[in-house]
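Q: Study each token:
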Amino acid sequence: MEVINTILGMQHICNELRLQNKKIAVVPTMGYLHQGHISLIEKATEVADIVITTLFVNPTQFAPNEDFNRYPRDLNSDFYLAKEAKSTYLFIPDTLEMYPKGFATTIIINNVTEKFEGVFRPSHFQGVATVVAKLFNITKPDFAIFGQKDYQQTLLITKLIKDLNFEINLIIAPTLRESDGLAMSSRNTYLSIEERQKAGIIFRAIEEAKGIIAKGEVKRQIINSYIHKCLRSIKEIRIDYAAISLASTLEEPDIFFAGDKAVILIACYLGKTRLIDNSLITFPNLLNDSNFIEGI
């Protein structure tokens, strides 16, 4: 595995690889790799000849009051884990390389960015869209691998690829979880021992909400209330949002119908640590069930 630090160096390598008809997959990360990231790299090795893992803590997606300076970093561990997962290259630019003096371009994607994360982190998605577009132009991939854990981000990347005509196949890999269901995240290291023991409530709230949907609940406000009630059973939880919406558009109808593909989205603080999670669900066809009819 080779480490590349410059944009021109990475572009030159990728140009040569494409001339050799090699298929390239990129796995964008902010480093501090864990098993969730490793699963993305392993997925990339299944679809491409060359895997480029990018390590860049992107300052433009952090608000001034967020954790950019203390975001966990461990390049030695990242190198070892990426190499073990068979990444071909590590692209590790510094901030000045990615945003040189005079850089003045921002990509803004509307609609799917305007609620949920977009409300609580209003500058976040334009930072994500801009850096991902740069990484695409630098690595020239055939495939881009992202995780479902950042669900709203995957909708943003889908729009970015479509609207700007990137010839890239987007692959969304499933969220990897700890034994209690907590979604793997670099920020989990912020949790105290006591907080970590309580963090499984997020996944439990999702699973219990899916349970009432399976029994016939279709009213959005009731489902949302159920999720909130579950989360608030832990007094240290502070909710930014906990809601169900249509998976493709994030629209929030009053009532869901059989066959609707939905996503349950949660962002909350446990102590001082902000955690996010989500899960997809398709509303069942229970029209012959009297309980389901009464619930409409």
Notes: Confidence is low (pLDDT under 50) at residues 289-296. Residues 73 and 131 are 19 Å apart (CA to CA). The longest strand covers residues 237-246. Strands lie at 2-4, 24-29, 50-55, 89-91, 143-147, 169-173, 237-246, 261-270, 273-282.
